[in-house]
């Protein structure tokens, strides 16, 4: 997982950041918009409960970088959830390459959506959510051309 932002312009709902959780096996990405970087723990709690109830999966590890708010998140995760939080070495984004690359993909697609449709910059949040959705429903080479959504939810695409 990783946190991206701040976007230079707040969205219409006041968002400036997003937290991105990426499942390494399926490459399914879950994007949460945030007003502040410190909102990340609340987003993790929501994500953790969603995975536990919808998929009946117990998360074992969360990998994130050494950003200040993620250090606090790591301590809370170990204490409250009994799972590992692997922190990368400072200034080595390649150790969290899956999340970093997915953020790049989503940001590039977000910019394309804004530019192509002539949308105001305040719509960056909606464009980012749409970009993440598109990534999840398109086949992924890493998964043998399977759709991340189908792998994550264990369904056959129609």
From TrEMBL:
Keywords: DNA integration, DNA recombination, DNA-directed DNA polymerase, Endonuclease, Hydrolase, Magnesium, Metal-binding, Nuclease, Nucleotidyltransferase, RNA-directed DNA polymerase, Transferase. InterPro entries: Integrase_cat-core (IPR001584), Retrotran_Ty1/copia-like (IPR039537), RNaseH-like_sf (IPR012337), RNaseH_sf (IPR036397). The keyword NADP does not apply. The keyword Cell cycle does not apply. It comes from the Eukaryota. One of its GO terms (molecular function) is nucleic acid binding. One of its GO terms (biological process) is DNA recombination. Residues 1-156 form the Integrase catalytic domain. This is Unnamed protein product. It comes from Phytophthora fragariaefolia.
